[in-house]
Amino acid sequence: MSLTKKIVSVAAGVALVAGAGAIAASPVSASSHKALPKTTGKTIIDLKPEIAAALAGAGIGIRATAPATFVTNPKVMIGFPVTGVKGNGISHSGAITFYSGANTTGVTGENPIITLNDDKTATITLSVSGSPIPLLYTKHEGVKYSSWKIDKSHSKWVVKRTVALAGDVHLTTNQAIVDLLNNALGTTAFVADLGLGTTRTTVTEIRTCKKNTTAACKAAGA
């Protein structure tokens, strides 16, 4: 069994986080109305300079697969676009890969889902070889919601609001996952509960009203 498959096997039995489905509204052709919007936003992980330097010094590289982004100037930042919101989950697209000289293929995590918890933490689950792995978590100061606003400029009225959260991002506390990640990359650079930096997420959440009435839109935003 490959080390990547072992990571999947161990994590699957430990703490799988409920997925959140993507929400997307299909454009509607109407000469007098705009196309329906969809939920948008982005999550940015800002790595601490000392963490970025330590990983580089240990021979660990990072690369992103679009639409995720990875930049190193002026700061080391990883970005994932938001694709939808459902319940307490925020879905994203894109992938990030950690690789090394010992494993140039690396370990890739795709389509992150941020699951908000009641204790002002959030779990960041990534898909590794098709299985959800709770690789990261955040300690945040809370989530800020704007009020719902009705948008009547579409063939179907919608309500929308912004959701913002920020906090500190850490590697999982699950030692088994950390050990297997280190083994997969031939390193000892990763430590359980390692503080990696900060994360911030901003989302414009969209919901379609069942009817083009104020009452229906208020119900959609309830």
Task: Kindly summarize this structure in a few lines.
Helices cover about 15% and strands about 45% of the residues. By secondary structure, the protein is an alpha+beta fold.
Q: Could you name the key traits of this structure?
A:
single chain; alpha+beta; 4 helices; 12 strands
Largest sheet: 8 strands, antiparallel, barrel
Estimated structural class: alpha+beta
What's the overall geometry?
elongated
Compute the CA-based radius of gyration. Answer: 19 Å
Whole-number count of domains: 1
Average pLDDT works out at: 87
Strand adjacency order, main sheet? 1-4-5-7-8-9-11-12
Total number of helices:
4
Query: Level of helix content?
Result: 10-25%
Query: Gap between N and C termini, in Å?
Result: 48 Å
Number of strands: 12
| Beta-strand content | over 45%
Oligomer: single chain
Give the low-pLDDT segments.
1-31
| SSE ordering | HEHEEEEEEEEEEHEH
Describe the structure in your own words:
The chain is an alpha+beta fold. The chain has one domain (3-22, 34-220). 17% of the residues lie in helices and 45% in strands. It has helices at residues 3-12, 49-57, 175-185, 214-220, and strands at 40-47, 60-65, 69-71, 77-86, 89-92, 95-100, 107-116, 121-128, 131-145, 149-151, 158-171, 195-208. It has an eight-stranded antiparallel β-barrel, surrounded by four helices. A hairpin with a 4-residue loop joins strand 7 and strand 8 (121-128). The protein is elongated and about 60 Å long. The model is unreliable at 1-31 (pLDDT under 50).
